[in-house]
Write a structure and sequence with these properties.
This protein has about 170 residues and is of the alpha+beta class. The chain contains three helices and ten strands. The termini are far apart.
Length: about 170
């Protein structure tokens, strides 16, 4: 039986801890946190950025995203699909909105002098997230360094070094 707390979440007012290697923190509000979102096709996320922090290149396989800057200045962009692979990007300020189409690789970087905060609305209760570097260089089991070296046109030693960081 549904309960009020199935439709409730608190926490998006809290500043995320950005003291990590990326300088960002994503706080999701999706079906995991709010069971009442099941089948509703919507979710949110708060993203906090330290100065020069990034939300690294990633994709949402099940959702488009609309991002609103609440504080600060962000450089944002996405890459169109093959064969064009064209970067569509913009610098956003407080109150600006940008859309990332479903499944396309996208990112954000704080290019302002202070912290930045954005709110993302997604068109799925369970949008999923695939962070490109983590998926490619940190997969479990690892993708062979020979495959990655050829794909990224790097030497095997460099691939091994990158994989060791994940």
């Amino acid at each position: 039986m549904a309960q009020p707390n199935d439709f409730f979440f608190t926490g998006l007012h809290l500043t995320g801890n950005t003291s990590n290697s990326l300088g960002s923190k994503v706080t999701p509000a999706n079906v995991v946190q709010i069971p009442g979102l099941n089948t509703l096709g919507i979710s949110l996320a708060r993203i906090d950025y330290a100065p020069w922090g990034i939300n690294p290149p990633h994709t949402h396989p099940r959702a488009s995203e609309i991002l609103t800057v609440l504080e600060g200045t962000l450089f944002v962009g996405f890459v169109t699909s093959n064969p064009e692979n064209r970067l569509i990007s913009k610098v956003l300020n407080k109150g600006d909105v940008f859309v990332f189409p479903v499944g396309l690789v996208h990112f954000q970087q704080n290019v302002g002098h202070g912290n930045a905060v954005a709110m993302a609305a997604l068109s799925s209760q369970n949008p999923g997230v695939i962070t490109i570097a983590n998926a490619v260089f940190g997969s479990n089991l690892p993708i062979s360094s020979e495959v990655l070296a050829k794909a990224f046109q790097l030497d095997k030693y460099m691939v091994d070094r990158i994989q060791a960081q994940f």
